[in-house]
Each structure stands twice: as C-alpha cells, then as structure tokens.
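We store chain and fold; example below:
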Amino acid sequence: MNKNIFVISDIELGQGDIFDDFKDETMLIDFINKISQEPGKNILILNGDTFDFLKMPYKDVFTHHITEDISLWKMQRIIDTYPNIFKALRYFISKRSNRIQFNVGNHDFDIMWPSVQNLIKKTLKENTKIVFAQEFNNQEIHIEHGHQVDYFHKMDMKKPFIKYKGKKLLNLPIGSVSIIKYFIELKKEFPYEESIYPRHQAFESFPTFKKRKQKIARNFILKGLLLNFIIGIGDPISNVPYINFIKHVFSHGLETLDGSKFMRKRFKNIIKLHPNKKVYIMGHMHITHHDIHPTQDHIQIVTDTWRHEFRIQKHDTISKLKNYAKIVYDNNKLISVDLLTFVP
C-alpha cells in the first residue's frame, strides 16, 4: 500500500487582525483538498507554528502569562476566523486511511494544553487519527519544527508548565517573552516590512524599519536582559537563560537575523540527537533549503513558510512561493523525498 507523508510549516493562523500574517486561505484549502485525493494512506504533518498564538492579544491585551483558558480562547478565535480551513482538514481526515500530526512550534506552544487539543479534535470531528507531538520519527525520517535547536526559542520540555501566583502557565522561552513584551510593537507599526525575509535585507531596504527595530532591541537588552533580575524579580516566566545567549554567540557570533547562517549548525545538532536517519526536515527559519549531504548521504530540507511573506528581488518585493515536502513509501519502502512548490 502506498503511503504519502506531506509536510508544511509556519502557517501562523491568527484572528484576521493586523498581527495575523496568514493571507492565502484559498491556496491552503486547495492544497489540503488536492492531497486529500491522493490514493493510499496520507499523513499530513503540520510542522509547527500552524497557529500564531504568540502574536495574538488576549482581549486586546498581550501577556506572557499564558493560562489554559487564554490559549483556549485564542484557539476558538482562530477556528472562528478560518472555518473553511478546518472544513478542508475535516475532509482530509475523513478519508479512512488519512492522519494528521500537529508538531509543536515556538508560535503554538499552546497546543500542549489538553483542552486546546480537545477543541481541535472536536472541530475536526475526529479523536483517533490526530496526533499532537514535538516531532515525527520513523526508521528513516526525523521531522521537527526546529525551535528546539534555537537557543532563543528552545522550550524546557521537562517543565513545559509552571506555577506562578496560584496559576498554571506556559513556561515560555526568552524568545517568546521578548516578542510579547517588546518586539510585537514592530509588527504593529511595520506589518508589511515585518513580513519580508530574509529579515536583514528588509532592514537594509527600509531604514525607518531598521531604526525602530534597533530602538526596541536596545530597550530589550537593557530591560529584558541586563536589568531583568530587578524588573522581573519573582516572575519565573521572565527568567533569562544567560547560558543560552553564550551558546548562541559561541555558535553564531552576533548574528541574529539571517536564518541561512544558523541552518548548518541546527541540522548538526538535530543529527546528534537523532543519528542514522535518511531524511531530516525542519521549518522555523523562514528559508527554503533542499540538500543531499555529500558525505553522510542524507537529505536535509527546510520547507519555508505558508504565512504571507515577501522576498526582495532587485529593488522590489515579490510574494514567496508555498513549498511542501512529499515523502513516498511503497509497501514500507522509502521511494522518494521531494521539496515541491504548490501550484493551485
């Protein structure tokens, strides 16, 4: 029996406001409907950042103290904003052999809450063919979002929740906290420019955008890092893992923007944790990459995003294409691994 594994990442569904970076609803629905027609068993892996809880305010307020009720409220808002996408996913999962796996990303840690998982299952009208996980593994393949090898966004999976002032909260990493408390202003003021990748090229092309980012970054460094032990005293979610900053500088210097410069090291770290695979797939870095490693003979893929992004070409910006990985098995034998561009 044929088995197809489809992988997309970084859709970042929000609630349709200025912070919502998803715009291509029709294309995503067309993609889901198209792979629903594939013969055999089909597995759709939504490889992290399927939902953008991180840039969603809760009742017009941003907070880094995320309770289960807050995440549940946000999830319902996403469902209400994109009912046709969930309808397409229901159609996909209704096929007898099809499965969906939601891998956790740094924008949707919230799907770790049991009630959020139950709401998604209820909306898709399916309990047994939906999986929530950190990664997908079989004998040949490892698929994860990629934030766990990012020193700023790595989550403590031994302690994903934390108690504070009598409430159970998501134990967010410093990268998430910095976005919520500081850098969300950049998205609010420059929604178009913030959607341009590579980010360092966006700053080069839009000096005002760069200047505002530098001001916010200085504020974060002063308050979020240097004075955090005073300002954030007693708040465990605001704790700064300074060792992670040291590790980042040791691995990447002062580079924080160009994902292509982080990629090799991140794949290397994943391979150390999951050796002897033939295929490694990530998202997270907002770049496209497809490479057969010349010495170890394994495939490395970064699928890029399905949120609405632009790239700079000469002196203009153009919309980025939507890519997906397709892995084909025939009677449990790996036949092909491709990074493809979806054309409706």
